[in-house]
Amino acid sequence: MSISPPSERLWWKEPIPKMELVWIIVAFLWGLTMFGMMIYWHVEGEQNLSNEAYRTTPEVFAKKADAMVEQYKVREESGYPVVHPPAGSDVYLIARLWQWWPILELEKDKSYRLHISSMDWMHGFSLQPVNINLQIHPGYEMVLTVTPDQAGEFGVVCNEFCGIGHHTMIGKMYVVE
Ligand SMILES: [Cu+2]
Hints:
Layout: H1 18-43, E1 52-55, H2 58-72, E2 73-77, E3 80-83, E4 90-96, E5 99-101, E6 103-107, E7 112-118, E8 123-128, E9 132-136, E10 140-146, E11 152-158, E12 170-176
Parallel strand pairs: 3-6, 4-7, 6-12
Antiparallel strand pairs: 1-10, 2-3, 4-5, 7-10, 8-9, 8-11, 11-12
Bound molecules: copper (II) ion.
């Protein structure tokens, strides 16, 4: 049997069967509903971060992070500087193969502008155990206004596969009273 063209030249110009039309309408309305829910969840559900993204370069971003570390480093933990920047300031977190650098120490109930960018490939910022996730791209900085409302030690893991050392890409963040 060979493949033959449909008998009607305008094969696609058929009336839509009622059942198909019903499903199209259902899917369309559901899409509209979920669109509205995105806005609702943003406001009420405390989901969907209000992040901003700006263009940058790894060099420019690293320079800012280095300056912050130099000025506000308070101690060191297994080779990583622990940085305690003043409340209200801009704080920088570098993602690179395969670390989150430095360790930030923030104060509870104080707001910060948190900047995150990658020095190389794409990484995923995931703050544990709270459910905060951001995709981190090289060439862009993600900026969030954060107000930690829980003191303690938080883990930062990479949740975007970034190579052989991906599973070792674990950082830390402190929130102190
Ligand atoms: Cu990574």
